[in-house]
Structure to design on (190 residues):
């Protein structure tokens, strides 16, 4: 497997109640492609995953990048997992919205799945973009100016979106491809 993301730093932004598999699968794919992944969260110390299938708490993960001390400038790309509670929390936290906004304004690649794209509305990241999401977000995204379609994965410039856990294989493949093609490489001081 080519290490196509070697030297890239990717932020995975989650709050308590994120859909676990929508964080762990993309993280695994990014790590395998050679990226350095950091879990960024407003949660203190650990952030709580959730399994929607079983409707219960899953595992807790150590937070590598606590908000607001973590600087988005230090990352090349952003992943926004879903889960109903997670984006609903994030979009009410100004530091989280500002973090996402940096990637939107800098034109850095963003991959968002399921309910993940919700936070992008607050970060002014959906207008004029072709995108998909969990079906219940369709009208919110359309109202915010997105061109919404029901599809397993949609790539529009630097934005990759998917609908649900079943789309993860396609989502992860397109995420890696898009992140690798982006020329936002910042040579971080070692």
């Amino acid at each position: 497997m080519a290490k196509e993301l070697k030297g890239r730093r990717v932020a995975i932004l989650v709050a308590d109640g994120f859909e676990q598999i929508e964080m762990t699968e993309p993280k695994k794919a990014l790590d395998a492609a050679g990226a350095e992944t950091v879990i960024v969260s407003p949660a203190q110390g650990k952030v709580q995953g959730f399994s929607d299938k079983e409707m219960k708490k899953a595992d807790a993960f150590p937070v590598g990048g606590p908000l607001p001390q973590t600087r988005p400038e230090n990352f090349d790309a952003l992943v926004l997992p879903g889960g109903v509670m997670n984006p609903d929390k994030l979009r009410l936290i100004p530091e989280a919205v500002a973090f996402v906004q940096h990637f939107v304004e800098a034109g850095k690649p963003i991959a968002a799945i399921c309910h993940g794209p919700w936070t992008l509305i607050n970060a002014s990241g959906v207008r004029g973009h072709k995108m998909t999401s969990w079906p219940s977000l369709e009208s919110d995204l359309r109202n915010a100016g997105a061109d919404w379609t029901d599809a397993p994965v949609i790539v529009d410039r630097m934005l990759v979106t998917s609908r649900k856990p079943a789309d993860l294989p396609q989502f992860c493949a397109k995420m890696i491809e898009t992140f690798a093609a982006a020329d936002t490489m910042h040579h971080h001081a070692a």
In short: The mean pLDDT is 94. The longest helix spans residues 168-181. Helices lie at 21-32, 85-90, 94-106, 118-122, 138-143, 168-181.
